[in-house]
Amino acid sequence: MHVMNKKALLTAAFASLSTLAVASPVDDVLIIDEEIEMTTRVESVEGHPIPEVISGWHYRTPETRALEADSFANPGMLGVETGESIWHTVEGTAGKSCASCHNDATVSMKGVGANYPKWDEKNQRPKNIEAQINHCRVENMGAEPYAFDKGGQKPLTAYIKHQSLGMPVEIDLEEGDMQAWWEKGKETYYLRTGQLNLSCASCHEKNHGNYIRADHLSQGNVNGFPTYRLKQNKLISLHNRFRGCIRDTRAEYPAAFSDVLMGLEVYTTWRGTGLAVETPAVRQ
Question: Which position among 98, 200, 203, 245 bears the catalytic label?
């Protein structure tokens, strides 16, 4: 009976992906606060499997899209405000805050969030914003590093990335060994896992624009993270979302900031090259 149930489960999963209702992404323009026009559709870079890269904003309901277009209504901005407070908070044995070294974040952090992950020469691996924050906390502030998704990690990351709002995503694959990590991420992206035998590409490349249950599948671009997810009523970090997707395939998920997920971050960030930074995006 157990074997039959498992076979039935797999059959249903494949059937659901092959018979999804189709709904194209909306043809609309995202303008934040009636001032900042965002690049949400762009021709893909060379080697990309999809001709046009489209922000997840186009796949959401009118109500959700409207929330992101208005900073006052965007619930993710509460996290950004918390991050601003943390930026100016002194912590650690060195008696410093982020602002002690970097001053006004609207100036010093402008463009930073659009160009991460970067190569970490010392540790010979990519580093994302969260890793750079922890480096600064330990080495410059004498403070404890943040545990994954704990303390001020999400709001501070959101605050830093928000300073690049509207700027195009672009990472440098020629730094260090970034290209090799791009390859690792690509392998993970297309690897089918779990009882449902699905990969990232199963939903976000082969079926974007389709509905699975009540969810309109997007291309899975990551230009809006940390993202405010209405379903969870809070900011969600990128690696949290990676792990959630892997969990939904009924597979064991890797640790946050593991080699597997750092490679995936490099690859998925590259896939969204040219899209505007939307942090904090609003999604369902």
Answer: 245
Greatest alpha-carbon span in the chain: 64
* 168: helix, strand or coil: strand
Angle at 72 between CA 71 and CA 76, to 5 degrees: 60
Phi, psi of 120 (to 5 degrees): -100, 100
Q: Annotated catalytic, 98? A: no
Q: Look at residue 228 and give its three-state secondary structure.
A: strand
Q: Give the three-class secondary structure for 57.
A: helix
* pLDDT at residue 164 tops 70: yes
- Taking alpha carbons only, the member of 2, 16, 4 closest to residue 196 is 16
Judge residue 190's burial from the number of C-beta atoms within 10 Å of its C-beta, 0-12 exposed, 13-18 middle, 19 or more buried. Answer: middle
Structure confidence at residue 1 (pLDDT): 37
Strand partners, 165: 277
Give the position of tokens 């449902």: 196
Question: Which of 101, 74, 76, 73 is CA-nearest to residue 87?
Answer: 101
Q: Determine the Cα–Cα distance for residues 132 and 246; give it in Å rounded to an integer.
A: 25
Q: Which two tokens stand for residue 169?
A: 């995503």
Domains within the chain, CATH numbers bracketed: 20-74+167-283 (1.10.760.10), 77-162 (1.10.760.10)
Q: Vertex 151, ends 224 and 119: CA angle to 5°?
A: 55
Digit-coded pLDDT (tens) for 81-103: 999 999 999 999 999 999 999 99
Rounded to two decimals, the pTM is: 0.92
Backbone angles phi, psi at 84, to 5 degrees: -65, -40
